[in-house]
Amino acid sequence: MLLSIGRRPRLAALYAEVEQVRGDSVRADWRIADLIRHADTCTAPEPGIVCPDDGPEFAALQQQVRAALTHEPRKQPVLARLSRRLPCDGCTAHA
User: Rounded mean pLDDT of 38-60?
Assistant: First the structure.
């Protein structure tokens, strides 16, 4: 995720905008805004090739996303998070 944020910073910022408007997160345990801040302060690997986000394709995507954010969400954020949550099988990450 940190490498992706480094390679596509404007796309990451667009994800953060969606999170902020909808009050939801990319993942239940991660907010993209927190990952962006972390990528700025940690010793993440250099992104290497940074993909340009300044062309007409990205501008069109950004416009479509912002237009969609003016509509009511299809699911409330809490319901969306619950529908993707899988039961824990006792793995060490949740012990």
Answer: 78
CB 44 within 8 A of CB 58: no
CA dist., res. 68 & res. 12, Å (int): 17
**Nearest alpha carbon to residue 69 among 33, 22, 26, 15:** 22
Domains of the chain, residue spans: 2-84
b/e 6-43 (16+ beta carbons within 10 angstroms → b): bebbebbbbbbbbbeeeebbbeeeebbbebbeebeeee
- Res 64 pLDDT > 90: yes
